[in-house]
């Protein structure tokens, strides 16, 4: 029996899954078939007289002439207060403004320097701050040597320049009066050197720093034009960060995006090329305004995260027409861990998620209103805005294409539903100008405008986003096409492994949160500073049950309007079920806004039961906020006792501290 089971497992382990495009095409075809059957059956029922749409339902267009909801002063106050309450902890401790800025780089192989300490020192730590250089100069190893009692140099260890604006630390201890650091290749920039004496928390004040070979002349130039000087290595000792906190360092995928934004500023070939450029432009804007520092490269993403709070309030109000339910929608977004963490790290997921929400926000208008009742011009406005959001989203990250599939199917359903109404109108014998030129205006013209809104305009935005890359010398327009091929090959062929990667079915139950950042230096003092990427358990653990229940309840109650957030959740999630490359829990981020709307829908249904249901809902909201407050220290990088972080590690796969 055991052999039989092994053979079965071995067979399935060698089954090669179809490619992503094939799998997604199959999913889309299945949805098309289902939608087609639904539309055809409704038309047949109209023709047979089994489905009757009243004259009022066919011709009344008062709803289409009015906005879906109207805000009053109270709503603006609620949104303002919620936005401010979220913004304060989101921006607090976001990042520092002062980091080492002045660089030095080895001119050639075996170039380096000697640090004279002036006396014998018990060295416990040597730190270098990794600077900014062209990609071709990455990977340099800086070999640390110390003068021993025999007056010769002994090897300590090597620090490899593998990051960008972050501290690299050697904790190998030795006693010496001089330290020599030699590079095995040229070009890698260091912005500061710090040496720590045993028992001290401040950098040791060195006597002098000299080149190993004063005759070496460097021909390497910094991409940002800053001169490479040896004295720059010890000129910003007040900016040394013993604990290597997130306030002075890039962490996790920040190694890619701020650096690429700086490449755009300096018009050199970009470091990160696995995603379209527009998201890095947002990062660049923050750096141009606030400087090249952690606050500068994080602030714009954080402001987008702040803007999601009123956006979710508006979306909730648009769908549910109730102020309390709009409040619930924004409230759950406020206190979701993933939303907080992903909008404070300088990556591009926050931008694409924001524009994906906008895409569904605008298509909702088109879906719930009949275009022939609204009139052609009025009906085209949400399509234009949806297409604009799609163009910005797709120029940021390709996962906006997942949303485009959902939007397209929603549009198909909306138009099929209008055919049903047109069939009912023709059968009724009524006469109305609303249905004049029905096919030419509301199908053929709309289709032509959709080509403009969803293909041409997004295409122009997408192409224009490559301006900085095409302006790099020797690049030109060919680099646009080269990058498309490179991105597709990268994501399609990626076979790498990562200790924090996880599969789509693990995300909702959070079996493997990502430890974005942690400070090793604080562990010696029984403290920790961590940033953990995960969701709020009171939202995430009920996300899949809520999605399934929401679909069932919406079908049973015939709440057609819920199709939009349900499709939003499904089409941001289903593609990850068929992706073969490694994925991470943060890929669930763009699903969560729609899951929250579905949870609020179930809250609405629950509250309709009456009794103490609203008190129960308020209790759930309060508990969600309390859990967020409990976890806030390890979501924000706050320094807390190690025991507190340990207390929050509820499961074996949760690691929150050194």
Summarize the SSE layout with pairings.
Elements: H1 2-13, H2 20-48, H3 55-59, H4 62-65, H5 73-91, E1 112-130, E2 141-147, E3 153-160, E4 166-170, E5 174-183, E6 190-197, E7 208-211, H6 257-266, H7 278-290, H8 294-320, H9 323-334, H10 337-342, H11 349-368, H12 371-374, H13 376-394, H14 400-428, H15 438-464, H16 467-470, H17 478-493, E8 514-518, E9 527-533, H18 537-540, H19 543-557, H20 563-578, H21 592-607, H22 613-636, E10 639-641, H23 642-647
Antiparallel strand pairs: 1-4, 1-5, 1-6, 1-7, 2-3, 2-5, 8-9, 9-10
Helix pairs in contact: 2-14, 5-8, 5-9, 6-7, 7-8, 8-9, 8-11, 8-21, 9-21, 11-13, 11-14, 13-15, 14-20, 19-21, 20-21
Domain Protein O-mannosyl-transferase C-terminal four TM: 477-654
Protein name: Polyprenol-phosphate-mannose--protein mannosyltransferase
Pathway: Protein modification; protein glycosylation
Q: What would a concise description of this structure say?
A:
This protein has 658 residues and is of the alpha+beta class. The protein has helices spanning 2-13, 20-48, 55-59, 62-65, 73-91, 257-266, 278-290, 294-320, 323-334, 337-342, 349-368, 371-374, 376-394, 400-428, 438-464, 467-470, 478-493, 537-540, 543-557, 563-578, 592-607, 613-636, 642-647; strands at residues 112-130, 141-147, 153-160, 166-170, 174-183, 190-197, 208-211, 514-518, 527-533, 639-641. The protein is elongated.
């Amino acid at each position: 029996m055991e052999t039989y089971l092994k053979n079965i497992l071995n067979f399935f382990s060698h089954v090669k899954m179809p490619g992503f495009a094939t799998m997604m095409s199959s999913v889309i075809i299945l949805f098309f078939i289902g939608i087609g059957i639904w539309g055809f059956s409704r038309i047949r029922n109209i023709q047979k007289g089994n489905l009757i749409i009243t004259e009022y339902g066919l011709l009344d267009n008062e709803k289409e002439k009015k906005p879906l909801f109207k805000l009053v002063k109270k709503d603006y106050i609620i949104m303002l207060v919620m936005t401010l309450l979220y913004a304060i902890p989101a921006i607090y401790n976001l990042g520092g403004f002062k980091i080492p800025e002045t660089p030095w780089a080895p001119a050639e192989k075996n170039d380096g320097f000697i640090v004279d300490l002036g006396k014998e020192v018990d060295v416990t730590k040597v730190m270098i701050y990794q600077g900014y250089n062209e990609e071709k100069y990455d990977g340099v190893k800086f070999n640390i040597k110390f003068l021993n009692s025999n007056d010769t140099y002994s090897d300590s260890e090597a620090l490899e320049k593998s990051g960008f604006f972050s501290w690299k630390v050697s904790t190998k201890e030795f006693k010496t009066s001089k330290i020599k650091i030699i590079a095995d290749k040229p070009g890698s920039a260091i912005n500061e050197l710090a040496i720590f004496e045993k028992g001290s928390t401040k950098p040791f004040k060195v006597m002098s720093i000299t080149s190993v070979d004063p005759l070496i002349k460097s021909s390497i130039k910094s991409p940002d034009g800053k001169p490479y000087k040896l004295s720059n290595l010890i000129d910003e000792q007040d900016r040394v960060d013993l604990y290597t906190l997130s306030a002075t360092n890039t962490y996790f995928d920040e190694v890619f995006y701020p650096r690429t934004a700086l490449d755009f500023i300096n018009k050199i070939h970009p470091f990160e090329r696995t995603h379209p450029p527009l998201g890095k432009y947002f990062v660049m804007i923050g750096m141009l305004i606030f400087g090249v520092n952690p606050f500068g490269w994080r602030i714009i993403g954080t402001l987008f995260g702040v803007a999601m709070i009123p956006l979710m309030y508006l979306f909730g109000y648009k769908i549910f027409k109730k102020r309390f339910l709009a409040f619930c929608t924004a409230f759950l977004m406020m206190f979701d861990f993933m939303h907080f963490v992903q909008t404070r790290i300088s990556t591009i997921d926050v931008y694409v998620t924001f524009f994906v929400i906008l895409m569904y926000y605008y298509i909702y208008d088109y879906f719930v209103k009949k275009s022939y009742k609204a009139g052609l011009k009025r009906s085209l406005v949400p399509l234009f805005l949806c297409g604009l959001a799609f163009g910005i989203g797709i120029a940021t990250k390709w996962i906006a294409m997942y949303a485009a599939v959902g939007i397209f199917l929603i549009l198909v359903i909306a138009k099929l539903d209008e055919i049903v109404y047109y069939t009912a109108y023709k059968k009724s014998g009524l006469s109305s100008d609303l249905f004049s030129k029905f096919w030419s205006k509301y199908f053929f013209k709309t289709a032509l405008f959709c080509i403009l809104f969803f293909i041409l305009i997004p295409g122009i935005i997408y192409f224009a986003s490559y301006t900085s890359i095409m302006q790099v010398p020797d690049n030109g327009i060919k680099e646009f096409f080269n990058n498309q091929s490179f991105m597709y090959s990268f994501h399609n062929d990626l076979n790498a492994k990562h200790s924090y990667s996880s599969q789509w079915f693990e995300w909702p139950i959070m079996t493997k949160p990502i430890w974005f950042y942690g400070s090793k230096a604080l562990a010696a003092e029984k403290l920790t500073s961590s940033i953990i990427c995960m969701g709020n358990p009171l939202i995430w653990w009920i996300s899949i049950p809520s999605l399934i229940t929401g679909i069932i309840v919406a079908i049973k109650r015939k709440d057609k309007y819920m199709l939009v957030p349900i499709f939003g959740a499904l089409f941001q999630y289903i593609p990850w079920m068929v992706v073969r490359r490694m994925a991470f829990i943060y890929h669930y981020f763009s699903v969560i806004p729609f899951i929250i709307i579905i949870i609020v829908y179930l809250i609405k249904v629950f509250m309709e039961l009456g009794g103490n249901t609203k008190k129960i809902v308020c209790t759930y909201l309060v508990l969600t906020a309390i859990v967020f407050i409990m976890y806030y220290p390890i979501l924000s990088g706050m320094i807390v006792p190690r025991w507190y972080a340990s207390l929050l590690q509820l499961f074996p796969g949760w690691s929150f501290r050194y």
